[in-house]
Design brief:
The protein is of the alpha+beta class. The protein folds into two domains: 275 residues, Rossmann fold (3-Layer(aba) Sandwich), CATH 3.40.50; 58 residues, no CATH class. Helices cover 23% and strands 27% of the residues. The protein is built from eleven helices and 19 strands. The chain has a seven-stranded antiparallel β-sheet with strand order 2-1-6-7-8-9-10, covered by helices on one side. It has a seven-stranded mixed β-sheet with strand order 12-11-16-17-5-18-19. A three-stranded antiparallel β-sheet has the order 13-14-15. The longest helix has 13 residues.
Amino acid sequence: MYLRGDIMLCKFKVQGYKGFEKEIELDLEKHNDYQFNREMIKNGVINKCIIYGNNASGKTNLGFALFDLTFHLIDKSKNMDSKINTNYLNMKSKLGYAEFYYEFKFDNDRIIYKYRKKDLYNLIYEEVIYNGKTIIKYDFFNPSKKIIDIEDAKTLNFKYNEDLSIVKYICNNTIFTKNHALPRLMDFVNGMLWFRSVDSFGFIGLANKNNVLDEIIIENKKTQEFKEFLKSNKIDYNLVELKTPTGKFLGVKIGDKITTLESISSSGTKALWLYYCWEIYFSKVKFLFIDEFDSTYHFDLAANIVKRLNSFRSFQSILTSHNTYLMSNKLTRPDCSFILTPDSLNNLSSCTDKELREAHNIEKLYREGLFTEDE
């Protein structure tokens, strides 16, 4: 059981969770053989996508659902717990629990991780399937019938606290053969990052050690690069570094006077600032989700960020947006643009029988009602 290539999320399903009464599926292997923007697909999996949806369609909850596994598999800082745990279970569902399904791909290998929860913290069932074979199965109500079929874990002494994830316990207490599947899966989860552009430090998963935007830029010696980044987005500030008894700050020199960047930044500039601070840590990211990434951006600025994110090939990224202007074949592809409703999640190319080409104006076709939101 060895892994070679990059591990990627290829399918996700959830039901009984928040606004998702019935099962909803994100299939990142369902794509077309378009000959343009081919870099959006990596190893047969969609690597960059944008999810569109109206208010209350579930975009934020989908992000929370995707990142649910981080709350019991890893110990990284998170500050969204109370918000996510409120109304955790769907109020119409008769299941009595939320059910999650993750399928990952690496070369020709597959690993499936599925589990059930009563709330954000309490697991009731876990299962891991590797290439069609169940290697972990644990029912928290019937632990005597557990399945642990892992060669490296045969000598593991199970002094197990039943409040913990069995997968986490095995990974934390087993010396694995090099490149074993489970440590690679845990490495992926450790590299997951969710943040929202309108919430300065609302995040899930990967975290930096500082939450002061000025200090992140200064301590990473990125002031000049940040200045160029802002300038590329038509914000031309003469940035300087300020040191005071209370900390380090970014200043803007205007004539012979200096003020703080914070004091003159618009909401759009602050969102860019936050984005850039997270970008500093992108070398550690495996999977990125930015919720309502362009809520304070001008159309052109939003397009610039999409282009910039598309240049990062080393991780998968998902953006959510209301902005159908971004449905452009200059930025993405029809099979990498998803429409979310409370009951379905499908990419544009699967919502029409029409053959879509690079020259088509996808946004215009969407506004004209070409795409049906249900397959």
